[in-house]
TrEMBL record:
One annotated Gene Ontology cellular component of this protein: membrane
GO BP annotation list: carbohydrate transport
Domain of life: Bacteria
Organism: Bacteroides nordii
Protein name: Porin
Length: 368
């Protein structure tokens, strides 16, 4: 939402103007927000080792004129164990990645044209796709993006980003269409041989992703969506997650997702979610994925906002099958502070892994 002008402290004005000048954007500046989210989690493999993972995210939004907005977000990752504590293929933690002092998540400009938002710049798919209240609860990476996509494309997926044109069209109160066109290969920031501003269709290909969703806003609300991706390069992905260019060939994947409220009374709510995705173009990687889950909001107790969830999925790779189960409980301790224990049980040909996790997150947003 774009809001009107406000009067800001001079110190804050200087910060905003400095940032705008650095990016070359100096038109009329109105409303801004600065936000910080810190997420930390302790992971424990009941058979062996432990790990501590931290994610810090900064983001700012600067309104330009009546219908424009400059967007920026960065991520910073630190963990104590260089190696994962489990040999799982889907990655049980959606924040765990290699240590990264600085990663660029968003850098670009959004223009509002009636019911359309058009973004141009650096972005990643996690900002727009596979985002819903139910999937946001679970800590498994596959709830954030299906492995038929993340394991098969070198795309702009957390923690990487790529040059992008993103369109978000709100057709009416129920229907929404999203379409994104990305450079076919994502890059890291400040790494030799990498250029996050790269646009090279001839060498790196083009990645397309689109989604049509319908939202039902009745008492028993629901969200139903379907989408597909197209990449004009075929990449191979082995068990270690290493991707190599195999040939110049169209690579296609599709998915369906539903989220349905089964019970709602006052603040209590029970939701069902189901996911299915397939990619039949690849020779190495994830070919099919299925997931089912249930969330119970404020059912356990009502003194604090809380959601209990259970989720099971099956990912079929060309080199084997992985089944993953998660039980998690997110409790809002204070307005901006959440505590979330989770338990993961994972099975693939490498073995069976049982992992306990305790995650905490704190968010601070400052409207200027």
């Amino acid at each position: 939402m774009y809001v009107g002008s406000k009067i800001y402290p001079e110190s804050m004005k200087k910060i905003i103007l400095l940032l705008a000048g650095y990016t070359g954007i100096t038109p009329c500046i109105s409303a801004q927000t600065i936000g910080t989210t810190y997420t930390t989690e302790v992971q424990y493999n009941f058979k062996s080792s432990a790990n501590w993972v931290n994610l810090l995210r900064f983001e700012t939004s600067i309104d330009i004129g009546k219908s424009g907005r400059f967007n920026y977000a960065s991520i910073h990752i630190f963990k104590t164990s260089a190696q994962p504590i489990a040999s799982d293929w889907q990655t049980f933690s959606n924040i765990e990645e290699i240590n990264m002092a600085y990663g660029l998540a968003i850098l670009g400009y959004t223009q509002k044209i009636r019911d359309i938002l058009l973004f141009t710049g650096i972005r990643n798919v996690n900002e727009d796709y596979f985002v819903s209240p139910c999937t946001a609860l679970f800590t498994n990476s596959s709830c954030g993006i299906f492995p038929t996509i993340s394991a098969n494309y070198p795309l702009g997926n957390y923690p990487l980003s790529a040059m992008c044109i993103h369109l978000d069209y709100k057709i009416n109160n129920h229907w929404q269409l999203q379409y994104s066109l990305y450079n076919g290969l994502a890059h890291k920031v400040f790494e030799k041989g990498n250029n996050v501003f790269s646009i090279c269709p001839s060498q790196e290909g083009i990645f397309n992703i689109s989604e049509l969703s319908y939202q039902q806003n009745r008492t028993y609300h629901g969200l139903y969506s379907g989408g597909f991706t197209i990449h004009n390069r075929l990449y191979s992905n082995n068990e270690n997650g290493e991707q190599t260019l195999e040939e110049k060939k169209i690579n296609f994947s599709g998915w369906f997702y539903l989220e349905q409220c089964l019970f709602k009374k006052n603040q209590k709510e029970i939701n069902l979610l189901a996911q299915y995705s397939a990619n039949l173009s690849i020779n190495m990687g994830c070919k099919r994925y299925t997931g089912f889950g249930v969330t119970l909001s404020n059912i356990v107790f009502s003194s604090k906002e809380n959601t209990l969830g259970t989720f099971i999925n099956c990912a079929r790779y060309t080199y084997g099958r992985e089944v993953s189960y998660e039980l998690t409980w997110k409790i809002c301790m204070k307005k901006n502070f959440n505590l979330q224990p989770a338990f993961h049980l994972i099975n693939n040909k490498e073995g069976t892994f049982s992992i306990g996790m305790l995650r905490a997150s704190y968010t601070f947003n400052l409207p200027l």
